[in-house]
Specification:
207 residues, alpha+beta, minor pseudopilin epsh fold, six-stranded antiparallel beta sheet, four-stranded antiparallel beta sheet, elongated
């Protein structure tokens, strides 16, 4: 005699205990994968930030050569989300041909990815720390959403593409923007941008 049909409610069913075990395993996998995902996202943010900074520096150099004018790149430092002031944006300016000491923006300010910043200390970013720091009030240029509440340092390209830099002060470090950020220690994940004083060309180093 052949057995009777299996009741639909018993066909391929899971018990409550089995479902709870599966949910617990998925939760553990998610917890253990979070640091890796955060590290990956942080690495992608640093790559985008390095591309942005290099792009602005390259634009400044090319403009200085093609127009035979001095071009400066301003690195803006300001507070965000209740945290301390960090260098979070960059903008190139070309010297005016009509009036000495006047500057015209080549484009609007370019913000770094929100979770990144440029280090401002002499140890990791002498390229920026060695330059004269100025304030938004001195520049008289308001930033969108920031106004004049910022400070900035300048890297200037000469008409031949070279940059006036002190010896050894040719690099700056990009890293994650954290509240407990030690300005003198190299983080695990970073990007270093080096600018040649002679040619003005850039190189990027990643760990």
């Amino acid at each position: 005699m052949s057995p009777g049909p299996i009741h639909p409610s018993l066909r391929g069913a899971f018990s409550l205990v089995e479902l709870l075990v599966v949910i617990a395993i998925l939760g553990l996998l998610l917890v253990f994968s979070m640091p890796a995902l955060q590290s990956l996202n942080g690495g992608l943010d640093l790559t985008r930030a390095a591309d942005l900074v290099n792009g602005q520096l390259s634009l400044a150099r090319q403009t200085a050569i093609s127009r035979n004018r001095t071009v400066e790149v301003r690195f803006y430092s300001y507070a965000q989300d209740g945290g301390p002031a960090r260098i979070r944006a960059v903008q190139p300016f070309v010297g005016s041909e009509e009036a000495e000491g006047e500057w015209q923006p080549l484009m609007r300010p370019q913000s770094l990815p929100r979770r990144t910043c440029l280090d401002s200390g002499m140890t990791l970013s002498p390229l920026l720390a060695s330059q004269t720091n100025r304030t938004g009030s001195e520049a008289g240029v308001a930033l969108p959403g920031i106004g004049l509440s910022y400070a900035y340092s300048v890297v200037s390209f000469r008409p031949d593409g070279s940059v006036d830099l002190p010896a050894g002060a040719d690099f700056a470090t990009l890293k994650a923007a954290r509240l407990d950020d030690p300005l003198s220690q190299l983080p695990e994940n970073y990007a270093i941008i080096q600018v040649s004083p002679v040619s003005g060309r850039q190189r990027t180093y990643r760990p």
